[in-house]
């Protein structure tokens, strides 16, 4: 240890004071003792601090993971389908007679009509002229028939007369009472009379055939006239009207009216081929038409057996009740409930799909345990677990993370609303 004077000399050099000051000598000694004492007290504390450091570091290495509790809940398996609203049976109304102008229209799109209701009328003046001509033709054929009948009567009388004369001549043949030329003339006259009778009969048949032709023409004209009243072939709702007053009616263009028979509208839904086997006739469907705030309760009416090879989509027809928001051609979305079950559920994100099956990571006493499970229905982000875990056990909410079986973690429970509670869960 240096002498008292030397220590003070060093201190004095640092302060710029005189080394010979006796006052500084007695004041420095207590200060030096205090410094040494504090050094002795502090060293043990510094020596003990590294001993507690590894335990704290070990505790910080356990990661915090979000877990959820396996709870019992009722799930319903749903299939989503989309498509277009269509008429169940669509009736096309076309004119039964062409080339006539549309004279009047009595219904418009959106109207409901009964079967046989007159939707429109065509102009009939042209047909009326043809009917008048036909009436004259009928009168002419009747006169021809009467004339042919009279000719038959006259020819029959002539045949009788010539036949009797010929018979008398035959009786005189071989005697000198009749010459050979006279007998030949009687025979010729009889043959001519028979020929005239045949001509008269044929004329009568032709006249009758002509009358039947005129009658057929009249029936056609009357039929065409009756079809100038365009009637509804079925009762239902008029979906569209393409007819315009003054338009020339034609069956080759667009139909004059389109009617939904009985007003029945249904959803023509597209279904992926993997989900089509889930659909069955009679299943309930909740349909949401585009642009409507309300839903419509429908029923699966038909599941078509054919899959479109290009789109890989199948078709299903969903019958709908009458509703004001249903408009043919509108887009709609349907939700079909295909199954319902009650069991243990966990989030879909908690299930990991592996080559050897599905697994979840159960956290118990802060340790991860990877288990194989079997799943059932899924709905709204939840999946039913039928085998592998018990009710109340906690599973990691998101599978496929960095965790492995045997890892130590700090579980933090996540509620259904997404909030976290209690970081010290042991289950």
TrEMBL record:
GO MF annotation, one: efflux transmembrane transporter activity
One GO cellular component term: efflux pump complex
Sequence similarity: Belongs to the membrane fusion protein (MFP) (TC 8.A.1) family.
Entries under NCBIfam families matching the protein: RND_mfp
Protein name: Efflux RND transporter periplasmic adaptor subunit
Pfam family, any one: YknX_C
UniProt-listed InterPro entries: Beta-barrel_RND_2, RND_pump_MFP, YknX-like_C
Organism: Pleomorphomonas diazotrophica
Limits of the CusB-like beta-barrel domain: 267-336
Positions of the YknX-like C-terminal permuted SH3-like domain: 343-410
């Amino acid at each position: 240890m240096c002498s008292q004077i030397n220590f003070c000399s060093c201190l004095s050099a640092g302060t710029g004071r005189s080394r010979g000051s006796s006052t500084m000598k007695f004041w420095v000694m207590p200060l030096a003792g205090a410094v040494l004492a504090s050094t002795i007290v502090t060293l043990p504390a510094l020596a003990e601090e590294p001993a507690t450091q590894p335990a704290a570091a070990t505790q910080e290495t356990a990661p915090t993971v979000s877990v959820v509790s396996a709870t019992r809940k009722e799930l319903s398996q749903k299939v989503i389908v989309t498509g277009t609203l269509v008429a169940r049976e669509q009736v096309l109304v076309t004119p039964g007679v062409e080339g006539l102008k549309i004279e009047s229209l009595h219904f418009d799109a959106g109207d409901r009509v009964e079967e046989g209701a007159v939707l429109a009328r065509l102009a009939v003046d042209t047909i009326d002229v043809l009917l008048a001509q036909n009436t004259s033709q009928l009168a002419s054929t009747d006169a021809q028939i009467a004339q042919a009948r009279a000719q038959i009567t006259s020819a029959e009388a002539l045949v009788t007369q010539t036949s009797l004369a010929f018979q008398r001549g035959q009786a005189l043949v071989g005697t000198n009472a009749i010459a050979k030329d006279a007998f030949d003339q009687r025979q010729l006259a009889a043959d001519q009379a028979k020929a005239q009778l045949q001509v008269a009969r044929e004329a009568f048949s032709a006249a009758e055939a002509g009358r039947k032709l005129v009658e057929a023409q009249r029936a056609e004209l009357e039929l065409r006239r009756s079809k100038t009243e365009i009637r509804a072939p079925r009762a239902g709702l008029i979906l569209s009207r393409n007819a315009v007053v003054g338009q020339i009616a034609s069956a080759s263009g667009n139909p004059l009216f389109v009617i939904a028979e009985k007003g029945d509208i249904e959803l023509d839904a597209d279904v992926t081929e993997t989900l089509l086997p889930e659909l069955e006739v009679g299943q309930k469907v909740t349909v949401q038409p585009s642009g409507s705030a309300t839903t419509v309760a429908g029923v699966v009416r038909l599941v078509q057996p054919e899959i479109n090879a290009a789109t890989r989509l199948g078709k299903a027809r969903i019958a709908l009740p009458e509703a004001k928001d249903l408009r043919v051609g509108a887009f709609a979305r349907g939700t079909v409930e295909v199954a319902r079950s009650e069991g243990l559920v966990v989030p879909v994100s908690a299930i990991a799909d592996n080559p050897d099956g599905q697994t979840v990571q159960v956290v118990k006493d802060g340790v991860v345990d990877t288990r194989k499970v079997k799943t059932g229905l899924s709905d709204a982000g939840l999946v039913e677990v039928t085998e592998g875990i018990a009710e109340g056990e906690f599973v990691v909410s998101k599978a496929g993370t960095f965790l492995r079986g045997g890892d130590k973690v700090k579980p933090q429970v996540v509620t259904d609303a997404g909030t976290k509670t209690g970081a010290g869960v042991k289950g």
